[in-house]
Amino acid sequence: MSLTARTGAPVGQAPTAPLPLVVAGAAAGAAAAVFSYLALVVVALAAWMFDPSGSQEWTQMLEVASGAWLAGLGQAPTVAGVPLTLLPLGFALLPLIAVIAASRWAADASAVARRGEAVAVAVSVGMSFAAVSAIIASMSRNLAISPARTALVAGLVAGAVASLVILRRARLISLDVLPLPARDGLAATGAALLSLVVAASMLLAVAIIGSFDEMTSLLVELNAGVSGLLLLAVLTLGYLPIAVMWSLAYLLGPGVTVSVGTIVSPYVDTATAALPGFPLLSALPDQPPTGAVLLPLLAVAAGVVAGALLRRRGQIGLRGCLVAVGSAIATGATLAGAAWLSSGSLGNTTLQGLGPSAIPVALVGTLLVGLGSIAVAAWPSRRSDG
């Protein structure tokens, strides 16, 4: 198949003369990488301009932006010889949103009509995104990030996301091809995960409000100025998804490791270990608050929500139980991946192995969500057959 061949009608608002597949994909991938990177560059340079002391060169601030962008792609920077693997994955939203938007444009601009054409565009997106990522990594020599590894990871992720977006945009894939129980199970998994995220976010908000005085005192002690406060605010946003996952691990019961040998959970009464002067960490409780042992019931409630959705979709009785079990397992697997991504190290001494443990979080999450969903979906319908 030619990379410029066309069959079928254009998708969406494609132009009369569609762009070649490779050209559209390459332009989309490069634009997604460049514009998402520039968003962080603007913030870093703004912080540099607000620094009255002039202690930082603009090239150093550019490297800060590069490190943040690369961290969003899962690339751990090395600072003062110490690899920092607990990454602010919130920065991943910038390239992710950019790749999605650019892929939608590429699908329309190239009038994708076949799966082979969609793959060609997606591969071009991935390759151009990888090329820009490698250039950014090579510009950040002090962070010791491998350009080759960055290009490989960035290209695979961008290509995979672009494939899904383009195929969906061109209406070449649909969940309707899946069996009905599988679709219902995916919907229940999404409902359970959304419920858990909402509960964890509310718990985190309560913790932040409760530790507001400590956070304010820490900010005063840091005396970071306008420049430092701006960078600190952006970094906090970058770590916000990590904080939500830590809150979720606390809610489930296994808790999080905050230092070597120190775990914060609803069932452990221990003082918080010495942590970096980062305001968001002030939300960690020194001891379990009143009623904390009941927090895992929120995960059961999330299972109830999933089970209620299954009932609305007609998955009840034994069949409903089987779908609920599959949904709970999928929820646990997702939690395991999220817990793994939310753990890492911030130093080479006591600040190693921070965050939730994937296996306990997955097992507890599967058990609690499964308990709630099975309890609701197991009951047969009360309507009579006659």
Largest beta sheet: strand ordering: 1-2
- What percent of the residues sit in helical stretches (DSSP H or I)? 55-70%
Number of helices: 11
Order of helices and strands: HHEEHHHHHHEEHHH
Strand content: under 5%
- Please report the distance between the alpha carbons of the first and last residues: 58 Å
Query: Overall pLDDT, averaged?
Result: 86
Low-pLDDT runs of 5+ residues are 1-5, 7-15
Tell how many strands the DSSP assignment holds.
4
Whole-number total of structural domains: 2
Radius of gyration: 24 Å
Shape: flat
What does this structure look like?
It is flat and about 70 Å long. A hairpin with a 2-residue loop joins strand 3 (256-259) and strand 4. The protein has helices spanning 21-49, 58-72, 93-109, 115-139, 147-169, 180-210, 212-222, 225-252, 297-312, 317-341, 358-377; strands at 78-79, 82-83, 256-259, 262-264. The chain has 386 residues and is mainly α. Mean pLDDT is 86; it is low at 1-5 and 7-15. The protein contains eleven helices and four strands; from the N terminus they run ααββααααααββααα. Helix 1 packs parallel to helix 4 (115-139) and helix 9 packs across helix 11 (358-377). It has two domains: 21-173, no CATH class; 178-386, no CATH class. The strands form two sheets. Strands 1-2 form a two-stranded antiparallel sheet. Helix content is 62%, strand content 3%.
